[in-house]
């Protein structure tokens, strides 16, 4: 019986291959396919539903249902049994469809006389393409062999869709894949706009021949590919063991377990015996595993998707002979497109990139941090971008709005280029202000500093007109390595940073890790709320060896120059006292060893928790400077996770309650006569920056590109007059001062 099923499946797949190779339009191919599937399986009905858009399925071809329903019957994702298959990625097999949960009667199809229903997803590596359905008049349950056989056929349909088999000139055919304009709305990771060509970080392997003519030959190819894959993985694990990196080795050991999975290999062998090529068998099992794991409640199991995807992609490249290098040449204006990417990989691309688009990521992710350091636009949460984009596609990245235009229409491209031109023209105007102070018409001057984290940032110090580096993120040098950097390495880096600052002050923030910034060689902490967990100075005080080593490197880098050290995420005075004491001990130790000392030492803290605004007066008196960490302070003040796109934009920085908090901090610092700065995304937004300055914050630190717009606006207005506008808005009981401030600016 099984041999006959295998033979029937191979005959059907060979017929599908002939249909793929034959001339004809997309609709004609769909009609032929439904006819041959129904005939092969002995069913009265076979129907193909394909996605018209991300949420809508359309009946595109049928054998057995009413022809007039084709391209007229549509269902929402999750609606009816067909929609359920599409949403879950799992088959539905029932002898009595009308009594099944979620059934939806569609009278225009005439399906009421076919109660037996089997629907399987048409999907490719996480990309939902449609649903394949067979139905019978006799109430019966389809066998496991029939279910499995239909899943194999659906895999071939998925590959045919990818290869454009269903494109055609008829108005009722499906729109051409990878050819039509597409707008994807994501979220802002880094502001800015860029035009370029797609460069896929991990290009998809297109399976050109989903049907295997010789099962024995395909099985041999599969076994050879799996042997080579396992050898590569075994070598990786052995190398990890030699390095003694226990946690890393444990992860690789789990990875090796997947590679040596007998059940994984057995399922692919069965697919090949039914008629798939080796490559199509790999993709079928990859798609099926994705559908299962994406529905898993256990986050650990969902994380294994990355392991399975990586193994499958490696095996596909082995089978197709592509290896890691596909031979494609990077375009002159590359926009990197990826599901996600690590900081080291992104830094390898460096400033060659014009922009980055990610399906995943977060505003505080490693990739976002590096993108900000490289000053390139970044859009995150761009759903399905890796499935939709092909290498070389035209693409527009609007980091300001969090929008991506793939293969844009001419009118969209022209409007976007106009926007880029206007921004470039504005930057030219700002360049003329480079050497002028940010002095308001009332005579008040605001110092504008830049944020940095890489040596590549330092040329912007002079070009932007920044008066110094208000925040140098030292954690990037830890994030991009697979091991803890050596003290001599860090000392050399910090010295080069000071050299390139040409005497302008550089404030070094000590290691700020934890939360969203987990080192690759650091054991992950299973914390329910990592943003409020073991991070930043808390890690430094618990792992004092790393903190001492970094402080030693900073001292040795200064060599007779002023040194500015800032401790992050201080929540109460005791943490600052402990960190300050460690720094003083290291200064004494370095002096005893005869090393050159800094000419001056300034020590400060980042105020990122509301608790520190209520710290004893002694805290402010101990600090040489205080810097408000606006991103964290805002999320804790409003209890709105800045990694959560549903809430992070819900609260306005210019809310009067948040401004009241800032007023209190300003008053505390003025009382102790300690300099205060504001560091964070909002410092680089002109209206927010103007309000901070009007309240009395006279030092702002931002990305280099924001200095020009902020300085331009400050020089146009009177901060004392703006302060009166803010006071009046608060006196009126308004929730936010944004409206009154914006209206006042329009009159200036």
Automatic annotation (TrEMBL):
<keyword id="KW-0963">Cytoplasm</keyword>
<keyword id="KW-0460">Magnesium</keyword>
<feature type="domain" description="GAF">
    <location>
        <begin position="25"/>
        <end position="171"/>
    </location>
</feature>
<dbReference type="Pfam" id="PF00391">
    <property type="entry name" value="PEP-utilizers"/>
</dbReference>
<dbReference type="GO" id="GO:0008965">
    <property type="term" value="F:phosphoenolpyruvate-protein phosphotransferase activity"/>
</dbReference>
<dbReference type="InterPro" id="IPR008279">
    <property type="entry name" value="PEP-util_enz_mobile_dom"/>
</dbReference>
<protein>
    <recommendedName>
        <fullName>phosphoenolpyruvate--protein phosphotransferase</fullName>
        <ecNumber>2.7.3.9</ecNumber>
    </recommendedName>
</protein>
<dbReference type="Pfam" id="PF02896">
    <property type="entry name" value="PEP-utilizers_C"/>
</dbReference>
<dbReference type="InterPro" id="IPR015813">
    <property type="entry name" value="Pyrv/PenolPyrv_kinase-like_dom"/>
</dbReference>
<dbReference type="InterPro" id="IPR006318">
    <property type="entry name" value="PTS_EI-like"/>
</dbReference>
<dbReference type="InterPro" id="IPR003018">
    <property type="entry name" value="GAF"/>
</dbReference>
<dbReference type="InterPro" id="IPR029016">
    <property type="entry name" value="GAF-like_dom_sf"/>
</dbReference>
<keyword id="KW-0808">Transferase</keyword>
<dbReference type="InterPro" id="IPR000121">
    <property type="entry name" value="PEP_util_C"/>
</dbReference>
<keyword id="KW-0813">Transport</keyword>
<dbReference type="InterPro" id="IPR036618">
    <property type="entry name" value="PtsI_HPr-bd_sf"/>
</dbReference>
<comment type="similarity">
    <text>Belongs to the PEP-utilizing enzyme family.</text>
</comment>
<dbReference type="InterPro" id="IPR036637">
    <property type="entry name" value="Phosphohistidine_dom_sf"/>
</dbReference>
<keyword id="KW-0418">Kinase</keyword>
<dbReference type="Pfam" id="PF01590">
    <property type="entry name" value="GAF"/>
</dbReference>
<keyword id="KW-0479">Metal-binding</keyword>
<dbReference type="InterPro" id="IPR040442">
    <property type="entry name" value="Pyrv_kinase-like_dom_sf"/>
</dbReference>
<dbReference type="Pfam" id="PF05524">
    <property type="entry name" value="PEP-utilisers_N"/>
</dbReference>
<keyword id="KW-0762">Sugar transport</keyword>
<dbReference type="InterPro" id="IPR050499">
    <property type="entry name" value="PEP-utilizing_PTS_enzyme"/>
</dbReference>
<keyword id="KW-0598">Phosphotransferase system</keyword>
<dbReference type="InterPro" id="IPR008731">
    <property type="entry name" value="PTS_EIN"/>
</dbReference>
């Amino acid at each position: 019986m099984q041999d006959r099923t295998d033979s029937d499946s191979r005959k059907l797949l060979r017929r599908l291959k002939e249909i793929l190779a034959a001339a004809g339009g997309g609709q004609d191919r769909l009609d032929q396919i439904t006819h041959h599937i129904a005939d092969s399986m002995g069913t009265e009905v076979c129907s193909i539903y394909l996605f018209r858009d991300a949420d809508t399925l359309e009946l595109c071809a049928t054998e057995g249902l009413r022809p007039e329903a084709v391209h007229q019957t549509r269902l929402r994702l999750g609606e009816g049994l067909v929609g359920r298959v599409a949403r879950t990625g799992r088959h539905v097999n029932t002898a009595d469809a009308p009594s099944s949960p979620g059934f939806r009667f569609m009278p225009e199809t005439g399906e009421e006389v076919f109660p037996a229903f089997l629907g399987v997803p048409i999907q490719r590596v996480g990309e939902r393409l449609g649903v394949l359905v067979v139905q019978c008049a006799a109430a019966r349950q389809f066998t496991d062999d029939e279910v499995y056989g239909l899943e194999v056929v659906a895999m071939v349909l998925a590959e045919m869709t990818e290869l454009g088999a269903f494109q055609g000139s008829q108005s009722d055919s499906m729109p051409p894949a990878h050819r039509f304009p597409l707008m994807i709305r994501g979220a802002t990771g880094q502001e800015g706009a860029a035009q370029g060509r797609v460069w896929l970080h991990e290009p998809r392997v297109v399976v050109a021949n989903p049907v295997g003519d010789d099962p024995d030959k395909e099985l041999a190819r599969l076994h050879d590919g799996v042997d080579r894959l396992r050898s590569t993985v075994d070598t990786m694990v052995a190398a990890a063991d030699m390095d003694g990196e226990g946690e890393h080795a444990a992860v690789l050991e789990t990875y090796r377990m997947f590679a040596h999975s007998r059940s994984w290999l057995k399922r692919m062998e069965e697919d090949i015996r039914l008629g798939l090529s080796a490559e199509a068998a790999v993709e079928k099992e990859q798609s099926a595993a994705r559908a299962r794991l994406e529905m898993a409640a256990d986050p650990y199991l969902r994380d294994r998707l990355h392991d399975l995807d990586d193994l499958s992609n490696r095996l596909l490249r082995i089978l197709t002979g592509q290896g890691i290098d596909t031979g494609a040449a990077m375009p002159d204006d590359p926009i990197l497109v990826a599901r996600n990417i690590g900081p080291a990989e992104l830094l390898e691309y460096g400033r060659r990139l014009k922009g980055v688009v990610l399906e995943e990521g977060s505003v505080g992710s490693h990739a976002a941090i590096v993108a900000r350091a490289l000053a390139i636009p970044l859009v995150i949460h761009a759903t399905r971008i890796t499935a939709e984009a092909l290498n070389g596609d035209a693409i527009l990245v609007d980091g300001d709005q969090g929008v991506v235009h793939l293969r844009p229409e001419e009118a969209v491209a022209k409007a976007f280029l106009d926007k880029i031109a206007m921004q470039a023209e504005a930057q030219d105007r700002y360049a003329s202000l480079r050497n002028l102070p940010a002095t308001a018409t009332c005579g008040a001057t605001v110092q504008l500093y830049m944020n940095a984290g890489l040596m590549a940032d330092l040329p912007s110090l002079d070009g932007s007109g920044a008066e110094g580096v208000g925040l140098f993120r030292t954690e990037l040098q830890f994030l991009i390595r697979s091991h803890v950097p050596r003290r001599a390495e860090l000392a050399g880096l910090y010295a080069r940073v000071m050299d390139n600052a040409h005497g302008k002050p550089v404030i070094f923030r000590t290691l700020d890790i934890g939360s969203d910034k987990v080192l690759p060689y650091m054991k992950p902490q299973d914390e329910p709320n990592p943003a409020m967990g073991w991070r930043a100075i808390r890690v430094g005080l618990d792992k004092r060896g790393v903190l001492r080593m970094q402080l030693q490197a900073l001292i040795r880098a200064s060599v007779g120059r002023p040194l500015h050290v800032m401790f992050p995420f201080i929540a109460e005075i005791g943490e600052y006292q402990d960190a300050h004491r460690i720094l003083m001990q290291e200064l004494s130790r370095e002096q005893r060893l005869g090393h050159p000392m800094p000419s001056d030492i300034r020590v400060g803290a980042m105020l990122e928790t509301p608790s520190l605004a209520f710290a004893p007066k002694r805290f402010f008196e101990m600090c040489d400077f205080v810097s408000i960490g606006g991103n964290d302070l805002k999320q804790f003040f409003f209890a709105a996770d800045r990694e959560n796109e549903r809430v992070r934009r819900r609260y306005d920085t210019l809310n009067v309650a948040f401004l009241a908090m800032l007023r209190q901090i300003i008053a505390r610092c003025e009382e102790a006569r300690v300099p205060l700065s504001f560091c964070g995304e909002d410092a680089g937004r002109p209206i927010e920056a103007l309000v901070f300055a009007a309240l009395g914050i006279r030092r702002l630190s931002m990305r280099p590109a924001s200095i020009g717009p902020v300085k331009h606006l400050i020089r146009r207005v009177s901060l004392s007059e703006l302060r009166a506008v803010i006071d009046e808005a608060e006196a009126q009981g308004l929730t936010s001062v944004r409206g009154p401030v914006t209206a006042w600016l329009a009159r200036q």
